[in-house]
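Lab notebook, page 48
Experiment: co-folding of the full assembly
Goal: obtain a model of how the components sit together before planning crosslinking
Operator: M.T.
Materials (sequences as entered):
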Amino acid sequence: MTAPDTVPTPASSPPWAALAAAPAFRDLHARKSRFLWSLLAFSVLYYFLLPVGAAWFGDWYAVKVLGPVNAGLLFALSQFLIAWGIAWWYARRADEFDRIASALATDLGVEAAGARRNPAS
Amino acid sequence: MNAWKQTRVTLALLSLAPTASAQTVGEEWRALTFGVFAAIIALTMYVTWRAARKVRTSADFYAAGSSVSGLQNGWAIAGDYLSAASFLGIAGLISLYGYDGFMYSVGWLVAYVTVLLVIAEPCRNIGKYTMGDILAFRNNPRVVRAAMALSTITVSTFYLTAQMVGGGILVKTLIGIDYEVSVIVVGVLMLSYVLFGGMVATTYVQIIKAILLVLASLVMVGLVWAQYGFAGPAYFEQVVGNPGIQARVASLLGEAGGVLTPAELGQRFLEPGLYLKSPIDQISLGMALVLGTAGMPHILMRFFTVPTAQAARISVIWAMAIIGGFYVLTLFLGTGAAMIVGPERILAADKGGNMAAPLLAQYLGGGPDALLGNLMLSFVAAVAFATIVAVVAGLVLAAASAMSHDIWVGVIKGDQATDAEETRAARVCSLIVGAIAITIGILAQGQNVAHLVALAFAVAASANLPVILLTLYWRRCNTAGCIAGLVVGTVSAVGLLLVSPNMSYPLQQRAAQQEIIRLQEVRIANLEKDLTLVDEARSQALAAARAASAQAKKDLNRLGTGTTSLVGLEAPWFPLRNPGLLSIPLGFLAVLLGSLLYRDPRAEARWQELHVRANTGIGRAAANAH
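Observation: model returned without errors.
Model output:
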């Protein structure tokens, strides 16, 4: 089943409407969206806790934890770990998304992404 | 004798007969510095020469033929992103203000999470050479290309100006060449990379610079740790126990610091509040940083140099590792500089603290009179110079690409241009943008350009990011929305800046200087009456107070008689230094309203293709001729 599209697509290009309507694609997109946007929201919120905390909860930042190293310093350092952690987690899930996308392409008889690379210069 | 003392003795033996000079690099060391600079420049020229032979088509010029690997691109992104502001500026801020400076670093890294999750891969799947390509996919091509190109050129110009001014000052301070000549040197060098080697040379120069920068930082931090102990509580004990740092905190806190013990003063260095006073301002700046990187043309363009979305993903992850690692190192560069060089020396060399890292290198090598010290200083200075040139090259290429690919080929010639014509146009535009960059750099001498970088990020976050994000993810986004977003975002960011505290307000400046004079008079009067002070201490304090008062009077005279800022205000209307808090939501709102109030059948019709391609990469290779 194809949805009507108003822009005629040349015969050789992939059937976009069919792809967009395919249940496998919709499922992929839903899962990807949930994952990406919630991860992004978390990362942005976690980051903003740093300046907000420094401004309004500065006393907590001054609490010494390891010798002179205080909670504020540890919190700032944790931002790096969180950012790296997010990157690592995303890389893992992204491999999974890639596989689903390839399978989807094959199923609909379309060239998968990266099947043809740009000619090297 | 412990290992460190032995090293110092050896280093001291390497010193030649000397005279301490008031400037950072003494006269007799200029030749050495020049030599080191020349060596690094020669390396980059060689690379450019090799690259020039590979640049044949426009795809090569704009995007290195999409043949850069994920790892290489990761280093190139780091090289493009870590500007002199990161290296010199943040190290300086940390050395002078402690914790607040380090908070700056965090934002610069976290910004890449946005890029990684929602920008890098879709852009690689949709675009070809520029951000204009991404917008032109669904929307009216000529209109959005023109608007996007203007925005790209604006953002790149703001950023470029700050870099050119910084580069001119750096070369002048360290080699002694005139400011104007320095700016021209930076400009000509950068132009040679771009004109002859396009994106290929630019990529290699950025990779080289990033490697040199990380190496130099690792060596310096290693030496700092050798002296003070590996990072950890023991290291920070030394930081808070350092008398120079304690004195610095005391001077920053003024009266409030009088009741603290030296240990408490030192501890304060690791707490927030010595530099950043306004929390809302901090949040506004944070928004601009975290969202602006994802809208920066010269960063986004790097994604077109790799063949696939997966490679784009790998390059961002590598970039995050390198950039994040570097920023953690800056914590030790900054605190190390504060301990070894001392805040007063750093301030004396440059009020903004930008000489902290070069001075640290010099002192690690034995000080201003030692051969090794000046060798290390020269190396670090040359790395900082390479940093500026590499970033400037990336910016010029971004602006020139927008000019040639979007405006000349897209708008003026309606996409009817041969590849040879386009490549030639790209080179001509590079020359034009380069010439403009040099001219502005010369004209901006002496201006405070520090806020231009933050402004560039604010415009990128307010204008570029909303339109890119919404055209990729929102079905209803269309041409009207994109134009509205670009215009409102840019105008609001720039407009708010013009009425912000960043501008010069003569009445306020005069009041500030008069207040300093008054305070010093009070201090002088108190000192003269204070009988508990030893004569010598009193005369020293009196001399300091009188010097401060004299300086304030000089500054007051220099202010002249004007009463209003550039746009005619006596006091700022908008209270924040960074417009992000207001301009970013306005940008998004504009895209929303513009899209909803207008119907664009083409945008809706092409949604399915964009949606599938952005999410899966299907059809990207086949459709690259668009």
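Interpretation: The longest helix of chain A spans residues 71-107.
Next step: discuss with group before ordering constructs.
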